[in-house]
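Fold this complex.
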Amino acid sequence: MSDTIPGVSMDRLVARQQQLPEPSQRDVVFDVDDLGVSYSGKPALKDVNLEIYRNFVTAFIGPSGCGKSTFIRCFNHMNALIPGAKIHGTIHYHGADLYGSEVDPVEVRKRIGMVFQKPNPFPKSIYDNVAFGPRVLGMTDDLDGRVERALEHAALWDEVKDRLKASALSLSGGQQQRLCIARCLAVEPEVILMDEPASALDPIATTRIEDLMHALKKDYTIVVVTHNMQQAARVADMTAFFSVERGEEGHRTGVLVEYDATPKIFTQPSDSRTEDYVTGRFG
Amino acid sequence: MATQEVSAGAVRLRATRRRWGEDVVKVVLALCALISILTTVGIVVSLFLPAIEFFRDVSLWGFLSGTTWAPLFQPSHFGVQPLVAGTILVSLCAALVALPFGLGSAIYLSEYARATERKVLKPTLEILAGIPTVVYGYFALTLISPLLKDLGLQAGVFSALSAALVMGVMLIPTVASLSEDAMSAVPRDLRDGAYALGSNRMQVSLRVVVPAAISGIIASFVLAISRAVGETMIVLIAAGGQPNLTFDPREAVQTMTAFIAATGQGDVPTGSIEYKTIFAVGATLFVLTLVMNLFSIRLVRKFREVYE
Amino acid sequence: MSVTTLRAERPRGRTSSAVFKAFLYVSIGVGIATLGTLLITVVAKGWKYVDLVLLLEPPSADPQIAGARPAILATIYLGLLLIAFSVPIGVGTAIYMEEYANRDRWYNRLLEVNIQNLAAVPSIVYGILGLAFLVRGIGLGRVLLAGAMILTLVVLPTVIIAAREAIRAVPDSIRQGAYALGATKWQVIWRQVLPAATPGIATGSILALSRALGETAPLLLVGALTYVSFDPTILGDFTALPVQIYQWVARPQEDFRVLAASGIIVLLAILLTLNAFAIWIRNRYQRKW
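Structure:
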């Protein structure tokens, strides 16, 4: 197994790893047990077991169709919006069953936010975009302050502070995505889910998003789906590799292959499928 | 921004209060939708209950097969054929104008016209479609009728032909827009293939595009005829007010719709036989147009799959 | 080898092509010529009576002093009532069908077919419905309100269809983004979907309104009288502009024909304004997603 991955500095990787708390000191935010997802009876994902740790950046990588987007959408009940979607198994959020009988999706999404692949700002002003979350959740005290803080934390404030009333659609792609992040931050979540947040952006904008992930890690728990291995190597503390299994009738189901600290995944993976993927032999 | 301090087990994911507002909204919206269902129920009830009463006094067979319509005379006759014939005569003549010219307009817009032409022609057709029918009735009576007389056709002041011609032009946009939609949905490749083989525009239009779009075109035909059957004002003003069983369009006729409008305007006593004729004829009209509309809807749906 | 020419096809092919093309020109020409003739003759004939007398005076047996004021007022009242009734019900139905209804349920599929059907029912049948239920049935009588209610039903399918299209055009990514922030279903609809769909809904509603204001047949059955000389009230006898025009057309005297033409000019002016307004809204506010 080689010691280098093109585009990633191994020293930086290892150094970052050493800054993380010891396994015994880690807070578990999500505890996933035997999770599976099916759409109208067809399984899309199965047998997932892992834990997400507080203030970590966790990445899900894998070839297309392996269910990583499906998986991340389980954490904030977004799969419930798709008719015919069924969740099997459990996810515990700080010990509470995320899919318990009385769980309110609004409460879940208040604490667990999401940024999407293609920036989707609302067709409103920049201010109204960021203020939307607090408004619908009743967090209307000091709205101006909330908006400003959210935009600052998303590294967008300086660029837009003079034109908060301008339409959000007048921003560039990278700015729009940071706006979406600010929008997410404004409701003060604990967890931020990111579904391929930089895949629609140019390299410079991508770098800014990745830097943002590093900065936000201090205060938030971040889960990222990415199809870009180098990105996972650059930003993630823990990495989960998913792959596709072909069942009878050629039906493809996603499975979790390996979940470990990022350097280990990329330098000494335990499973040969992981090794094949990270060395570029497929996917 | 600090994360919320939570410890295991103390996280509450239940709603803080029951969101009954959401349920109220759903009920209100469903009630709105109910109104359209109630409308249909209302139409059926308001047509068929009195019609059934009517057919207790008048035999259905006599109604359908009788050739004299004279509900108020002594003795009264309730043969609906003159009214139906009037409707069919006018509709057919209107179709003879609307269908060919409508299709021709559609072919022109779809296959021949340049972008600038389309920008002018399409709105023009839309304006044609938007003119109120009473205006068309006026046009038929004041311009077309005298014109027909001047042309030596021996049509009277009121004639089925006058109404039909104007109605036909009014329906050109109906045929044109639906047919043009159907033709635009035909993929470019089909045309390109034919052009590449050396066909000229007429051949491509008639042998490739029209057959490919035929279901939409026929649906537009059926819709136009259905509209002609249900149209009231043009015939009320220009076609005549006396029931007349004839196939000569130069004569004056009364259509089902004109009869309903003329009778319903007056102060007919509720429950009288004359009152009930409104519903009997109305029910006949409704059944006729319903059959045509269902057929047209099925046609559109059946062949929409082809290109989607 | 003889010289190959690339001249157009054989003369026979060229003739039939030319004939066909001529037919196409005639097809378009018929519509345009009719429209042009209609507009020109109406304006030429009726222009001389388009003045304040027409707009402000009630009708009379003397065409010199006859006006269309009750009819114009009634048409305006009908328009306002129509908007007040048809837009909330139509948009509400559209929201239900697009955002709440489960397409697998039979009653929702029935609803879809039902609306498609209603859109194609002849307007006079709605008039019969109004006559039976409103005028005679519940005894509302031949009043403006009954006319407004029936015209609402005539126009409702069109408003529903236009509203549905406008709602469907709003990209799903907007909804997803709003849900992810913790908004409830109604909050997503009320604060994101409806505002984004408003230009489309407005355009569709105004176009539907314009069609309805030209309708005559249902109003005849629901009791629009053809001779009303006083200003209309909601619960009183009424007429409407198209009905007034019809009354004038039916009279053989030339002067009344002229009056009819001038009434038509006013009606067309109202409709033209409405349509232009609708199109202006569409051009200015419609978003290309």
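Residues 14-48 of chain C form one domain.
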